């Protein structure tokens, strides 16, 4: 029997235990062919994940928690500016926020290799992992003393200027940043990084030394953003700045998808939309969302509400960390109203989800219309359902307005539930992003 949605949501919201190891029958080994490495991608609640939670809560509470989490994540994304700004620490009254991303891959660090299960984050650049002696880190850490290839990055190195808030700790480069509701201090380091059969010598990453808060992924993060310290930038000669992922549906028994690194083996039949560069938020993957349809009918979106604006940072991004798509308020309200007119049933509310229904309803498709490409979503990408099936909600919500925290402009975010069972290709050299339907399990 497939795990229920509440169990999926719990993985994103509850404090997680790192004591349980993955099932020995689980397959974490990747597959290789010339030019491509394929890694299994697991949801953190997969039976193969060491982070599956052991607690439980009601479906309603999980949805309320998720609403808080996604709002905080959006504030984090909107704060990623080149212009220095005050750190943001989103808070949710009376609720535990887990801001970490929700899909993990296996990486091996050092020589001999030490295995870490790291979150993949398309909106972050530098990788970081907990290291021995870290205060506030999980119990699973990387031990640099066991790796003769480990070395610290000196303050004079070029990489030191590529991290946020660089500082010197003696002669070693260090940096600190806010991630969700957490802050951390890390020393910039280098060691071998192995992904499947590929070994990247001298990979630059942050070695976590001090962490506050509960938002940091327990065994670290692999940054898939567009900055100079991201995986794609550091492995440009190997993977040609090209990757794709397929995120599994919550209906999948093992929540197993795939991350393909490199241009070979990517789908041949694929439609693309241009990747846009926003100098205000250079690490994010912007695309040009030009319209939305509910069923076959275009939604009457306010003029300019979807516009990409490099001067302010406004526009639409594809993200691997938000669960449910967030649209700027006037766009969301137009989509919601069009959806309600098609469904024609009494509406209820659950937290930030304001379009919920009791009992079975006929669900129309929702299509995101990008420049040069359409992405049509069926019911599994549009609705979240309670365990009993008695209540279902439109799996989208309004983004927090401008002025929240230090947000100077609001972004639309195409989230992971809407991406499930799609292959999403990030082709940076050709400045394009492709989406096609694919069973991801």
Task: Tell me the total number of β-strands.
Answer: 29
Which term fits the overall shape? globular
Class derived from helix and strand content? mainly beta
Mean pLDDT across residues: 82
Main sheet specs: 19 strands, mixed
Determine the fraction of residues in helical runs and give it as a percent range.
10-25%
First-residue to last-residue Cα separation: 15 Å
Pfam family, one: TAXi_C
Active site: 121, 319
Keywords: Aspartyl protease, Disulfide bond, Glycoprotein, Hydrolase, Protease, Signal
Signal peptide: 1-20
Give keywords.
four-stranded antiparallel beta sheet; 7 helices; mainly beta; 14% helix; 19-stranded mixed beta sheet; 441 residues; disordered N terminus
Care to describe what's here?
By secondary structure, the protein is mainly beta. Helix content is 14%, strand content 37%. The chain has a 19-stranded mixed sheet that branches. A four-stranded antiparallel sheet has the order 17-16-22-23. It has a four-stranded antiparallel sheet with strand order 20-21-25-24. The model is unreliable at 1-22, 81-100 and 403-408 (pLDDT under 50). The active site is at 121, 319. Residues 103-436 form the Peptidase A1 domain. InterPro entries: Aspartic_peptidase_A1, PEPTIDASE_A1, Peptidase_aspartic_dom_sf, TAXi_C, TAXi_N. Pfam families: TAXi_C (PF14541), TAXi_N (PF14543).
